[in-house]
Amino acid sequence: MGIAFPTPDADILARREAIVAGLARLLPPGGLVTSEDERRAFETDAFTAYRRMPLAVALPSSTEEAAAVMRFCHENSVKVVPRGAGTSLAGGAIPQEDAVVIGVSKMNRVLDVNFKDRTMRVEAGITNLAISNAVMHEGFFYAPDPSSQLACTIAGNIGMNSGGAHCLKYGVTTNNILGVKMVLVDGTVVEIGGDALDAPGYDLLGLVVGSEGQLGIVTEATVRILRAAEGARPVLFGFETSEQAGAAVAAIIGAGIIPVAMEFMDKPAIEICEAFAHAGYPLDVEALLIIEVEGSDEEMDFTLARIVEIARKHGVKTVKESKSAMETAAIWKGRKSAFGATGRVADYICMDGTIPTGRLPEVLRRIDEIVKGYGLRVANVFHAGDGNLHPLVLYDVNDPEEAHKAEEAGNDILRLCVEVGGCLTGEHGVGIEKRDLMNVQFDPVDLDQQMRVRGVFDRGWLLNPAKVFPLDRRITA
Amino acid sequence: MTAVSEPTSESELAEAVAEARAARMPLAVQGRGTKSGIGRPAQTAATLSTVRMSGITLYEPAELVIGAKAGTPVAEIEAALAARGQMLPFEPIDYRPLLGSEGGPTVGGIAAGNLSGPRRISAGACRDSLIGVRFVNGRGEIVKNGGRVMKNVTGLDLVKLMAGSWGTLGVMSEVIFKVLPVAETTATLVLHGLDDARAIEALSTALGSPFEVTGAAHLPLGIDRVPTTLVRIEGFAPSVAYRSGRLRALLKPFGTGDVLEGAPAADLWRRVRDASFLAEPRDRAVWRVSVAPSKAAAALARLRGEGEIRHFYDWGGGLVWIALPAAGDAGAAAIRGALAGTGGHATLVRAPAEIRAAVDVFEPQSPALMTITEGVKASLDPDRLFNPGRLYAGL
After folding, report:
1. ipTM of the complex
2. Quick count: other Cβ atoms within 10 Å of Cβ A38?
3. What structural domains does chain B harbor?
């Protein structure tokens, strides 16, 4: 397979017993995973094509324990790979043989809810959905909703600056976090931001969000919570061409309407998701838009009438409104399980580039050409309002040649995203998956500047070191 | 009289920085300098201005994105957006009324100051809309970060660092913003006679409702010395009518109030945005305090007895503007004392230079964060060329 890992440090491997013994002194029983069988659960994440067995796995129950483990690793020059729930699609949580995984999953409590200030303080191992569930009884929610929200942690969301289907209106993680408690590489604990809407000095919080576990380990977070709209209703719009669907999206935004979500699926994706979710997706169209609006019934009627009028001008073939909460749930189940449903029919790699939405029809055509050129198939689902594409390249994992082709096709698609003015990753992160493509989007001077800033936090490249930046040219200052 | 360099292109800008670096000459970095009165007075030998790097470089209304060279006047951006029914989402404050400065603010300046107005509570701050930057770092290198697409997590987010760095980390040459449509209709609910604590409670009630409030302010002296509380709703006409009705019902326990629309409402929100209520008298120092709304009124109450104080609230109580006599430390110790334990922080945005040289204009940070701050500065501007000392002494 194509992605390289650094050669494990033989000295660290030789000291494994002493390192494990040292860690065991810092953690309560159950806080340290050492046996090979149990470590195997941590050897990869949702980027399952790659796996490496970690030296050991520390599961601290408190910031103090996390800090003690970090301090010990720092003193012993042991690399650290932070981990939330291990749902990264980019390999962001994949370990390496000479590294200790520090998982925050045991730290999953709600610490404080403040409805008056619309903020909430949580331990970082809490799942994304559990945050919303904890405030649902008062009609509130936490806005970013990645498809993996049932499992993924806020720590991982912060690491990757995760998005979701509703970020056209509500923004991504970085727009919804007010503060973090973070353990630095040497075990120092810092508070960045707080519960006010801005913080003094440089925007270190903005720097930490999306830093892929390379600046420290976040153990607590203060998040913004929002009052949910009175109602939400998704509508299905089927088009005969993706050009028409793309033009309709542009016209809706041009008319001053920002729906809470605008999701696009092409025919292969429609078929896969409908077979799984039975959501009533139209099967006789080439492109499907799921457009969701929010508000009171009358407000939704008003906004949807405008959207339908625009869609008709762009030749919409099918319009299907959700008539009940169950239909709404089925429509979203289909979309949110797109990856899982695809996994039932084939192995796939999920790409995550973003493009300027005006280039959509051209990019879809070229993605099709790229994938066909490798003799493979592709299903496209993406967030149409913001141009964040998720082409799913289908292949057979048991066929090494096909797996290699899928990886190459994926890389070509991401190069295309950059070529048309977009970027390598919209919400999944770089991880190891896109690390070696960073040179496509950035010039050396851009990457050097990022690495110099990174070096302020981790001069010795101990934190999640195999990720984000190409291995061949690394600097600290 | 200091030398002023006004490069006309990004490459000229990079050359100017490289020359200053070779000569070890610290630079005052600015656009048109309308906010040069904010921050600690910097000791610089020359001024580097982006004023001649001007023009919109990209505008795609259907993609909700606009890009411009850093020296482009904000007015030009806003006019181009308005022509297509769009706007900068974060409603940037215009500091001219408060600071008495002249000239037109530049788009690079609003990014460098992370300037956000009343709509910050619903649409995010300037830093949330800023999606791409190009800048020249202290090595004279041209660096890009972010881009023109609104969802982008590729690499470290240096865009956020540049926002609010007050020209101390690099000289921005181009900025790209996410934009939003201008709402078809606006209505402002006005409540009268509430004290600070009660007013903030009303604002929290409104902001905790499903009706998407986009402005929430309280003026303790109102317009005619009657305390006035403002709640703004924006959207399509039927929606605004419905929501203002529901909000009035919800806020009934705080009084019946009335509805303000059109130009008078827009003018009032402009004055909230620009803090122009505190512009006069001009000899008063002005502070900007950021704090969780539920702690704001109590913090202000602790300030009573500190002489003549005027203040008002934006962001549902989370932003407090305070004017007081510019004597001694201009109230620094009293205000920071009143905020102790709240997690809030204070910035001195208007005071004579000798006071700004003597007190911490920006809130002092913990030693651990200060170490990181110094590291970040050194990683971008190793020779301390840009606005040295403007944010923190020695930085």
Report:
1. 0.97
2. 11
3. 1-182+364-395 (3.30.465.10), 185-274 (3.30.70.2190), 276-358 (3.30.70)
